[in-house]
Amino acid sequence: MSTRIGIMGYGNLGRGVEIAVKEAPDMELAAVFTRRAPESVSILTENVPVVNTADVKDWTDKIDVMIICGGSATDLPKQTPEYAKLFNVVDSFDTHARIPEHFANVDAAAKESGHIGMISVGWDPGMFSLNRVYANAILPDGKDYTFWGKGVSQGHSDAIRRIEGVRNAKQYTIPVESALEAVRSGSQPELTTRQKHTRECFVVLEEGADAARVEKEIKEMPNYFSDYDTTVHFISEEELEKNHAGMAHGGFVFRSGKTGVNKENSHIIEYSLKLDSNPEFTTSVLVAYARAVKRMYDEGQRGCKTVLDVAPAYLCSQSGEELRAHLL
Ligand code: NDP
């Protein structure tokens, strides 16, 4: 029987899960849940109901795994523990500093109700975390590096939009090529924040706004921009829509380690992602982990889990025999 998936929240990730489930031979989409009026939300698939979250309790025996697609800032800290009481759940919680606290909340809810709550699935946290952990296990004497981009940072774009006189804005985080090369050389450089990434901003001004003041406010904004070399371009709304509407992202995770009696040998592990669509890639990861959740649940596992707790074979629809023959 195929795994019945529910989607909680229909934004970029909700839509991405819908697309990824269509590609999964062993899954079917049971329903999409939203806090909005269901008739105001149109989904891609025919004959799948859109249901208000007020009626979610009617679905506990019709869904094997609920993929929670709310935002990390305020939705997921509430939604994931709440729905772990009713379903096996997966989320993409990406506020790194608050993962221990989120884990504890979801663990308590999932253990009490006898479910699995898989948190912080995606690419960072997610695939990048896995690569950091594998690399640290293999090269205990070494140094980690993570670079993001080139890609849009939602948080930095929002911060610019809050400046007086700004109508709209997009901010790209860009890794510095010479820093990537220094890491690849095995020299284990010490890199400052400024040496690792630059920030490029495309800003649409309100009529009559003072461009010089806006640029100064952006470049001097503490935490967000003051520690980086930042470039600001002022463009029209049409240009922003035409050239900066995409959701591309990506990044690099490295471990540079040494082995040998005198640490004479260097090893570099590099994992990189170049994503045309951040949400569609993230949801492809979420769906693979939803498959693992169903298998782990059927085996009797309960409580909160992260990507670090999942055996790789559980992510694939193929059998162990097929994987050993073709992918090992
Ligand atoms: P969105 O803002 O698109 O969606 C979040 C929620 O907002 C939805 O679940 C939906 O809930 C509501 N919503 C969406 N569209 C509308 C609308 N038009 N009007 C009103 N409400 C709407 O966020 P994303 O899907 O892009 O991202 C979700 C989270 O995923 C991010 O906060 C980020 O932290 C995380 N993420 C994690 C990654 C990782 O690598 N771990 C990578 C990428 C993202 P409802 O239907 O109930 O209204």
Largest sheet: 7 strands, parallel
SSE string: EHEEEHEHEHEEHEHHEHEHEEHEH
Give the strand tally: 14
| CATH hierarchy, class of the largest domain | Alpha Beta
Q: Give the tally of structural domains.
A: 2
CATH architecture of the largest domain: 3-Layer(aba) Sandwich
Shape: globular
Q: Give the helix tally.
A: 11
Unreliable stretches: none
Average pLDDT value?
97
* Beta-strand content: 25-35%
N- and C-termini, Cα separation: 27 Å
| Cofactors, ions and other ligands in the entry | NADPH dihydro-nicotinamide-adenine-dinucleotide phosphate
Q: Kindly identify the CATH topology of the largest domain.
A: Rossmann fold
Structural class: alpha/beta
CATH homologous superfamily descriptor of the largest domain: NAD(P)-binding Rossmann-like Domain
Strand adjacency order, main sheet: 3-2-1-4-5-6-14
* Integer-rounded radius of gyration: 22 Å
